[in-house]
Amino acid sequence: MELEIYDALQSAGVSAEKAKSAVESINKAIDQRYALHAQQLATRGDVEQVRADLEKAKGSLTAEIARTEANLVKWLVGTALVTVGTIAALITRLPI
Questions:
Q1: CB-count exposure of residue 31 (10 Å: 0-12, 13-18, 19+)
Q2: Cβ(28)–Cβ(18) under 8 Å?
């Protein structure tokens, strides 16, 4: 691309020194733009790292959900037993 721009400028009557300066200026602007985009865009490696982190988090969350579910079952069964016991005690106290 540099050579084509240089040749086009020379064909348009621009001196060799000015054509070279213009091409260098264009290259510098392109390099700055690429550098800016390189800082903002994710690479495949970045995406793979995020995927690995999400998989690890998914495993941790799955384990936490299982523990929470076990706790809920324990409390629900306990509450049901206490409720049944309380109702049974009340029934035995009722005059028939």
A1: exposed
A2: no
Residue 13 has φ and ψ, to the nearest 5°, of 95, 10
Q: How many helices (H) and strands (E) does the chain have?
A: 3, 0
The angle at the Cα of 46, spanning 40 to 47, to the nearest 5 degrees, equals: 105
* Rounded Cα distance, 44 and 52, in Å: 12
Q: Could you report the per-residue pLDDT of 61-70, keeping only the tens digit for each? A: 999 999 999 9
- How far apart (Å, rounded) are the C-alpha atoms in residues 94 and 96? 6
Two tokens, residue 31 = 């390099």
**What predicted TM-score, i.e. pTM, was given to this entire model?**
0.47
